[in-house]
Amino acid sequence: MRKLLLTSALILAAQGASADEIRVLNWQGYGTDLDWALAAFTEQTGHTVVHEYFTSEQEMLTKLRTNPGAYDVVLINSAYTAQAQAEGLIAPIDTAKITNFADLDPGLTGNADLNPAGALHGVPWTWGLTSIAVNTNDFAELPTSLSVLWDPAWTGRVSIRDDGLEAVQFAAMATGQNINAITDMEAVKEKLAALMPQITTFWSSENDWNQFMSAGDFAVATYWSGSAARSQAAGLPVAFVVPEEGAIGWLDGLSIPASSTHQDAAHAFIDWMVDPEFYVKWEPDGAPATSNTKAAAALPETSFNRAVLGDPAVVAKVQFMQPVSDADREAYLKLWQDLKAAQ
């Protein structure tokens, strides 16, 4: 860290730049505002960091629109990067100023949603999955396909989250479709209808899920990757699986507003956020998966984010979520409600 940050500081000095105060826009408590990380960055570069927070992606976009020049780094989920770029809210990333860029997973840096108009507008930072998890007391060998949800052997011990969009997305993957471009809703409907008799109950929170799994009610259920890591750490007999059909993914990137007046310092801050030393220290506190392959490799072999999500082959199977229109969302919710009502 010291060498990398000193390099950033020397570059800034060579360009005649003085230490800046940069403003970061993010969710509160999400990595960038860790006290020790900010102190290290300031000590080595002289730049200070002030945070402002949002509580939804729409609020984030509104802040960028109405406060030009107020922010220097912004956390944007990849599903919203293209919109921010189209509105002229964010600038292309100068990857030459990101010394760790070569170590970032090319499957993430090349993600189409982060590269609107053919240029990178968000440095991939963290990511996670919604996939399936199994009770290892029931499975001598881990399943490799989503078809396990429909396996008669597990009738009455299957669960999915009570969420219409997510249910439709899983059924789309199970029928070989793209979750962001579903073309055969009849196949999705039939697949979900066949799933309903398998289900013991729906879950809605991590706490719900853990209680059901602890009681042995679940043999296989959909789950979030970060939650699976915490369930494992709590001693539950859980294995997280990314099946051959893929998993639902989310990807967060760090972008630089087009109106930022401290772009060199902003690049330096993003470089620190994707630095392996930062991530390895953050990871034990429940950090999502990293975009940096060297950071993932530096984790203990027992780390969930290394053992499960540190493999580029896993990234290649992920279908990262894109925005869903209001009309589609309403159609998915109606289908889900109708299926539940028919049980």
From TrEMBL:
Q: Which parts pass through the membrane?
A: none
Signal peptide interval? 1-19
Lipid metabolism in keyword set: no
Location of the protein in the cell: Periplasm
Under Pfam families, the record lists:
SBP_bac_8 (PF13416)
Q: Which UniProt keywords apply?
A: Periplasm, Signal, Transport
UniProt keyword Transport present: yes
Name of the protein in question: Extracellular solute-binding protein
Q: What is the lineage of its organism?
A: Bacteria, Pseudomonadati, Pseudomonadota, Alphaproteobacteria, Rhodobacterales
